Amino acid sequence: MAIRLFRVVVVSLAVLVLGSCDVLQYIFGSVFPSTLTLIKDQADLSGMIAASNSGSTYLRLVETGGYGYVIVTGSPSPSEYFAFFYDLNLKLVKSLTGTSAPQGTGVMVDAGGRIAVGNEFFNPADLSFAGNNSATVYAQGNSGTDGVLSNGQNVIGIFVNPSSSNMLSYTYYAAAWTGGSTPTPLPTLSSSTFGLQVNAVFDDGAGNVIMVISQGSSGGNNDTVNARFVTVPESAFTGTFPTNAFDSAPQRNNLVSGSFGFADGSLFAYDNKASSLVRIRLSDAGTQNSLPLNNNNISKVRYVYRLSGGAFYTFDTDSRMLTKYVAWW
Q1: pLDDT at 4
Q2: pLDDT of 254-270, one tens digit each?
Q3: Which terminus of the chain has a smaller tally of CB atoms within 10 A, N or C?
Q4: Distance separating alpha carbons of residues 14 and 37, to the nearest angstrom
């Protein structure tokens, strides 16, 4: 009787903390058992995204003009797309599938303050359609943003040039998305390291762009990378880009390639060796805080963080569950 009463008390307290029996049903089977009390809201997308298509799904977060959205995009096939817009409390605001969906999976806030998704624009206030884009924004990886601003221009397609694997390539457009130019010559990232890849790109909100760059991955269960954190001024993309910026950037090893995020002036990632989420100092790649998470399937989880902190979000591509957590750092 005493044991049964104890269990009732524990579950009752959990309901008070988490606010939903549906949440409880999910978290007891969650890949994040140590984050139970951090969960604030959830949305189940399993009825909207087929299990066979979950691997082509991306998670993004935008905040502009006083509005913020968590956006899930994907492309089950080369000519098929979807985009689901949630508010910051994970209430579904807009659903675009089939022929109504933007053609493209990338998300950014453009120079005009509009939300660009694929080849379409949306007004931040009500997500009403704001026109077609002459260019297409594509997802550049499992985390980060898919475009940045530089001197009032839109920059997309930031990646390491495959034919010159130590050089950075990107395309920049005028504020109205006219033109479309690549830098000449391409910026050299390293004088001696080749085979580089851009794992994630972040706008720090203070005039800088942070690129997580690694020399490929070790593959394995969680696709681990030894990454350097290259910080450059936003203006560099349409001005003078620093030479060999990769060579002197802080480095941290054993990070899961799709787990990066940025908030409160710090980078976040999953440290595969420490089996923890870690908050990383940009200055020296040292650990500021950590949260133990033992999970062998971490590479299936997508992350986004609010730039100002206070919350982060995950999308589990297996369960297709979208989750909001309060900050643990």
Answers
A1: 41
A2: 999 989 999 999 999 99
A3: N
A4: 8
| CA distances to 148, 150, 257 from 207, in Å | 10, 9, 25
Q: What is the dihedral of CA 288, 292, 296, 298, to 10 degrees?
A: -50
The residue extents of the domains of the chain are: 1-30, 31-326
Contact between residue 270 and residue 245 where contact means Cβ atoms under 8 Å apart: no
**Alpha carbon distances (Å) from 43 to 23, 152, 223:** 9, 36, 27
pTM of the model: 0.88
Give the architecture (CATH level 2) of 31-326: 6 Propeller (2.120)
* Phi, psi of 98, rounded to the nearest 5 degrees: 60, -135
pLDDT tens digits for range 174-187: 999 999 999 999 99
CA-to-CA separations, 287 to 236, 274, 329, in angstroms, rounded: 28, 11, 11
Which stretches of the chain are DSSP H helices? 2-18, 21-27
Given pLDDT bands bounded at 50, 70 and 90, which one contains residue 6? Answer: very low
Q: Which of 144, 157, 259 is nearest to 202 (CA)?
A: 144
DSSP letter for 199, please. E
Backbone angles phi, psi at 22, to 5 degrees: -60, -40
**Residues forming beta bridges with residue 229, ordered by sequence position:** 212
Q: What is the pLDDT of residues 182-233, one digit of tens each?
A: 999 999 999 999 999 999 999 999 999 999 999 976 555 468 999 999 999 9
252 is written with which tokens?
A: 């941290």
**CB of 169 within 8 A of CB of 159?**
yes
